[in-house]
Write a structure and sequence with these properties.
The protein is an alpha/beta fold and 502 residues long. It folds into 2 domains: 241 residues, Rossmann fold (3-Layer(aba) Sandwich); 233 residues, P-loop containing nucleotide triphosphate hydrolases (Rossmann fold, 3-Layer(aba) Sandwich), CATH 3.40.50.300. It has 21 helices and 10 strands. Strands 2-3-1-4-5 form a 5-stranded parallel beta sheet, with helices on both faces. The chain has a 5-stranded parallel beta sheet with strand order 7-8-6-9-10, sandwiched between helices. Helix 1 runs parallel beside helix 11, helix 7 runs antiparallel to helix 17 and helix 12 packs parallel to helix 21. The radius of gyration is 26 Å and the shape is elongated.
Length: 502
Amino acid sequence: MLEKVDLEKKLSKEEYQAVIGDLKDGLSAIDAPIRDAGLPVIILFEGWSGAGKGRMIQKLIHNFDPRWFRVVNTQPPTEVDRREPMMWRYWKDIPEKGKMSIMDRSWYQEVSTMRIENHVDELTNLRHMNEINNFERGLADNGYLIVKLFLHISEKEMKRRLDRLAENKDTAWRVQDSDRKRLKNRREYVEAVESMLEYTNTPEAPWHLISATDERSATVDVFRTVISSIHSALKVKADRDRHAEEPASIILPGQYHFTPMPLLKDVDLNRTLEEEEYRKELDEEQKKLAENHNRLYRHRIPMIICYEGWDAAGKGGNIKRVSSALDPRGYVVEPIASPSPAEKNRHFLWRFWQRLPKDGHITIFDRTWYGRVMVERIEKFCTVNDWQRAYREINDFERQLYDWGAILIKFWLQISNEEQLKRFQDRQNTPEKQWKITDEDWRNRDKWPQYEVAVNDMMKYTSTSFAPWHIIEGNDKKWARVKTLKIINAAIKERLKDIRES
């Protein structure tokens, strides 16, 4: 792709002055339409050292209202960043609806310069590029505009600019040893960049290659690209909003292997434990979990435990029996409620990326990202296309967690309709339990058949080989508690079987 860039392209001062005024006016007029449409925009700049990324960002943002954008200066990952999935830190920077993030470098450093400097193998690099493509596709499908700009200069021009910066004591600090290394090994870096550009040049987020030899020409090209991209995105969004309730012809959950799951109506709920046996097995499994938690920490393996289930199915009591076996310094329970305004204004997975554990730690989710395909689907808090598309987005998300090295366990606590009614009545008639029952619980109960259809679909499309669902028979809480502990311990044992203890 780079060989197609005309590095000799130039604009005279007169040619530049003839067009730049209208382009600046066009950029200045963009803020209001973006806000009115609720269009989130990401403009990212990549390119060679000395190509002028910082200068171009400065010229671009001069035309925007500073209340509606922020500049993100992407640095190499910190020690904290390295304890999370690769895309974790980039999810944090995605803008709200109607706002812009302008990025000086981005996630692409992971598959270009850092690929070489960290000696990343081909298979891992391919996985990283797939994660990037999935990330960008998910954002684009949810209405984000991603404008990707690569500022290209020749090796000779790169050397000239680095030398000029180094000669000035006020700018010498900007030339790092890594810049010189990249210049010296330019051919190797070109190959990495070419691979990156070709693999991630997608219809949802295409690359725009900018000849940056001449600043005037580069400025005009950048301004035109941004204006054109935003106007096109506004038209697409308006059309999409008009057809929001038209469902997709078929659900596409991604190219994954799915494990067969029974329908909820076929689950045998006649599983029980006597009190004495329950106490014995509970104590044994909790002791195992306490030991396993230490092993997870020592081997820096993260674990994510997801709880979904019917209202009054016993999630809280179940979580309590699990968490009581864990070192409180190494786990957190995340109760998931309705999204906040800031969360509603971003991709639905954004708030869950903020809550992932560090390696060696455990996060327990009391309700999860599956709300998208259950309550949001049934209550029409999102469009039909939104929840149909979410199966693939969730599978992609969970695959990234698995590739990161996480143990991901998903529980559905199943109870009968009659058992739920019994528990609701018990809560309502017991003063110290009345806080647990709300009008919304009763209203949701009336929608049991709709939820059952949604849950069956959820399991059909998201029970993957790397993140299968576990249905927990919950009419007997004692049975349910012991079964979940056994599944957790078995998953940890399986994960650690090939790791030598020391």
